[in-house]
Amino acid sequence: MPVEFPGIGGGDTRDGPETAPRPAPGPRRSAARSVRAHRRYGWDRVLLASGSGSAAPARAAAPPVNGAGKNGEPESPALKVITTRHPGRWVAAAVIAVLLAMVASALITNPAWEWEVVGEFLFAPSVLRAVVFTLELTALGIVFGFLLGTVLALMRLSKNPLLSSAAWGYIALFRSIPLILQLLFWYNLALLYPRLSFGVPFGPAFFDIGTMDLIGPVTAAALGLALHQAAYAAEIVRAGLLSVDHGQREAAAALGIPRTRQLLRIVLPQAMRSIVPTAGNEIIGLVKGTSVVYIMALPELFYQVQVIYNRNGRVMALLLVATIWYLVMTSVMSVAQHYIERHYGKGRA
Amino acid sequence: MSAAMVDLKAVHKSFGSLEVLRGVDLQVGAGEVTVIIGPSGSGKSTLLRTVNHLEKVDSGSVTVDGELVGYRRAGDRLYELSEREILRQRTRIGFVFQSFNLFPHLTVRQNVTEAPTSAQRRPKAEVEALAVRLLERVGLSDKIDAYPRQLSGGQQQRVAIARALALEPKVILFDEPTSALDPELVGEVLDVVKDLAVSGTTMIVVTHEIGFAREVADTVVFMDEGRIVERGTPAQVLDAPRHERTRLFLSKVL
Fold it and tell me: DSSP secondary-structure letter at A203?
């Protein structure tokens, strides 16, 4: 410990009070050493030894001379820690607080928001039905999107070049077409194919059915959302599967665990760790994404508030109603996501 | 040695243009412990992985307990078995990895019971009892409900050994079981392996622990550049090597 203490000569430990409060280099270690030394020799011996040239132990032994020497236990000087001040943070916090207050005041005091109208329509039956329908569309889009997406991901990871390039082509195509365009295609499919027939490919048909009867507006919307979502889900699932260490699948194979069981019990649960956060993003995106379905005149939330404000003219208040419901839905989903992530994080904490 | 538990004949294996195994013959009798040593890149891990068909051989044959591994023979042709058949064969061949490869999202108990229940379809109660016994045997009874991440490397490898034993395999393959461990944890794993050796388990162990080889092996095999250079008792191979390459290798690791 080659530390110079101005004013303390090497080994000069007997000069009383003013040396005592100085922090010894490495207080913990020297305290420990003092204890050992004390137990073995008693303080007198240590002081003697320190007088004979070894500087570090001398300093270590110094405090007891003034402090706890009498009752036998050494006392390292109690040092108070003063944390760094952050005046900038306080200023920034004050600025934010003022801005928040301004926003709140602007929202509350401006009568143009028409909070009483918001209150009137927030729980109106037609709005609640629209919220439920929005959730249904989201669920259909996510469930079928991720089912198809998982199949596409497995296809892309397949060793068969036709399977993997077909999946690649699907993903490239459906990621390139705006959702709103795709919805219109499905909605107007009857213009291209008035009747759909089911049977042997290129062979006889068993029965056929009018396209309009099979694919109504709701089906078209769900189909469009699911097919669109599948393209993104495929990449999310594929990334998740790739994130699982190769050794996991190898260990499962070496243990003779059946193929599907390997996937469902060993690989997918681990892939979920990286799938869930991104999938959560997608679901929340889709809750809001369903609003484009309004072009098909389906009574989801956004379409429904438009219907109402076209009737009563309270545009801002009703847009606010929609905003509040979208906020509520996504917030609930964020909380759910937190718990799902915790479930799949088992054994990782 | 017609009654060999493991019988490798003229095994060849290439990765692209690199020939990793150049005609390996190896017989391991029932209850015997064979230790394979050799420099890295000598093909010893690849050889071990051909025994349970984690690596397919290019030519030659691998037989475990009289059953051809990974193939069905008809005349002078070998037809590769379906994945289901191969998986069934692997339940009879335990494998312990260098990096443990425990399933991190499953508890120690679930790690041990997974394969016997899903691959061998044995009753759950029987497998649970077996897991308790095996974890006791490797000295980890108190960790049965822990997750792998909560265990030290040595403990994880002991769980991995229990997991392999749970299938009641005819032979256990160890691929450098202590190479990923901190030095002070090597002993506890080797003690478990030794215990298995004493109890008559057929084993092939790839390792760099020469002391372990001397103590436990019935046969020591020295491999270099995809071939078996020399084999014999530990005394013959480790103390009186006949080949220059063996001597050179031993002088570096001892």
Answer: S
The first and second tokens of residue A266, run together, are 């060993």
Beta strands in B54-177 (DSSP E): 59-64, 67-68, 71-74, 77-80, 93-96, 171-175
Number of domains in chain B: 1
User: Rounded to whole angstroms, how far apart are CA atoms B4 and B218?
Assistant: 14
A114: left (phi over 0), alpha (psi -120 to 50) or beta: left
Question: Does the complex come out with an ipTM higher than 0.95?
Answer: no
What is the CATH classification number for the domain harbouring B174? 3.40.50.300
A177: left (phi over 0), alpha (psi -120 to 50) or beta: beta
- Write out the two tokens for B145: 């409900």
Does the beta-carbon distance from B115 to A257 stay under 8 Å?
yes
pTM: 0.75
Give A169-199 pLDDT, tens digit per residue: 999 999 999 999 999 888 888 888 888 888 8
Neighbouring residues of B244: CB distance < 8 A, sequence distance ≥ 6: none
Find chain B residues with C-beta within 8 A of A254's C-beta.
52, 54, 90, 93, 95, 97
Token couple for B139 = 């000295």
Has residue A347 got a pLDDT over 80? no
Query: Is B1 a member of any domain?
Result: no
Q: Residue A269: closest CA among chain B residues belongs to which residue?
A: B105
- How many CB contacts within 8 angstroms connect chain A with chain B? 78
Q: What number of other Cβ atoms are within 10 A of residue A283's Cβ?
A: 23
Cα B230 from Cα B221, distance rounded (Å) = 6
With 0-12 / 13-18 / 19 or more C-beta atoms within 10 angstroms meaning exposed / middle / buried, residue A285 is middle
**Single-letter code of the amino acid located at A202:** F
Judge whether B75 lies within some domain.
yes
B83 vs A250, A252, A259: nearest CB: A259
CB contact under 8 A, B54 and A254: yes
Give mean pLDDT, residues B155-160.
96
Please give the pLDDT value at position A72. Answer: 54
- Which domains does chain A show, CATH number per domain? 111-197+210-345 (1.10.3720.10)
What is the rounded end-to-end Cα distance, in angstroms, of chain A? 40
**Cβ <8 Å between A258 and B114:** no
Secondary structure class of B58 (helix, strand, coil): coil
Residue B171 lies in a domain: yes
Mutation choice for B interface testing from A255, A266, A343 by most B CBs within 10 A: A255
Q: A113 pLDDT band (50/70/90 cuts)?
A: confident
pLDDT of residue A166: 96
Q: B66 and chain A: CB distance < 8 Å anywhere?
A: no
Output the pLDDT for position A73: 58
What average pLDDT score do residues B108-124 get?
A: 95
Among B98, B27, B17, B86, which Cα is nearest to B56's?
A: B86
Q: Say if A36 is an interface residue toward chain B (CB within 8 Å).
A: no
Q: Range of B114's domain?
A: 6-251
Q: Is residue B26 part of a domain?
A: yes
How many Cβ atoms sit within 10 Å of the Cβ of residue B83?
Answer: 11
